[in-house]
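3.2 Worked example (two chains)
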Amino acid sequence: MRLGRGRAFLGCEFLGATAFALVKWAGAAYLVWLAIGMLRAASASAPVGDRADVSSRDEATASSVDRARNLGRLFRQGLLTNVLNPKIAIFFLALLPQFIDGGAPAKLVSFLFLGAWFVVQGALFMIAFVVLVAPLRRWRASPAWRRALNAAGAGIFVWLAARLALVERT
């Protein structure tokens, strides 16, 4: 027996509502998991930042080859995170076409040029940001301040999880 149009639509509506609920609850659970980790760090006797201080001192004594490997690994990790992030592709596919003339002979070239220009501007901004913020590496917050920041961050994540869990699909 063949389903009518209305019934097929209701089936898609049900699947959409189910997918929305699954993503919503998974997101809320992930935020709560992050909050629990931040609360653990806030209640720990040695804050997470102190452990990072030890590793940064060890890294400072490492050879230049090891530092270059670490930087290469971090670069690859960041590159893969951005390349495999579907939101980036959706962003470019939604934003850039509106700036390309419909009668342009080389739409693909225009699209690639706009994408490359976006990458160049982003890289220049991040380089400027790193140059301006790098001197702050010497400043270390006190353990009490770090614990307070972790506790406040955990509270914000729990609040966001609650808001996400209570959101209704429109």
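3.2.1 Second chain
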Amino acid sequence: MPEAAASACLPADCWQQIFGTRRPLAVEIGPGRGEFLLASARREPGWSFFAIEHSASRALRIADQLVRQHVDNARVLSGDAACLVELFPPASVTAFYVLFPDPWWKRRHWKRRLWTPRFAAALDRALAVNGTVELITDVAAYFASALFQLNATPGLEVVTVGHPATLQTSFARKAARRGTPIYRSVHRKRA
């Protein structure tokens, strides 16, 4: 990571400032409609959940759902995840979830794809020891490319590669209706 980015990190206690408490932190990148974020936050009240959504309108809808459903252990922010993750304090995240990221199908849009060596390095830097990165997608070529980036990151080790048992999101349901395979990997920060 460039020195400028490393020196511009958020303060080490930023998550405590945001959530008002010290708990394990899970970050979802690209929450879409917020289904996974809301379900996870309700299921795990002892965790803090932070989501980064590229679409400002989707982030506002998710934030409204969090308020209406009285979910106080989750926050959502609109922004560029690749940039924001670089600002996270080192070893501050227990789990990253990247579920059905936009594959940016057109060749001219590939520069917008999330999975780059720089992004994988930023995830590695932000992860606490034994923290995990879970990737799920229904695009085989995109999965192979992301898996290559994760496997090439020295601080991460593969835990599992396969298909998720169950996942209840609109993207997972669409893939199931189409009969499209869903691919999953989990990588862990090395001790």
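3.3 Remarks
The radius of gyration is 16 Å.
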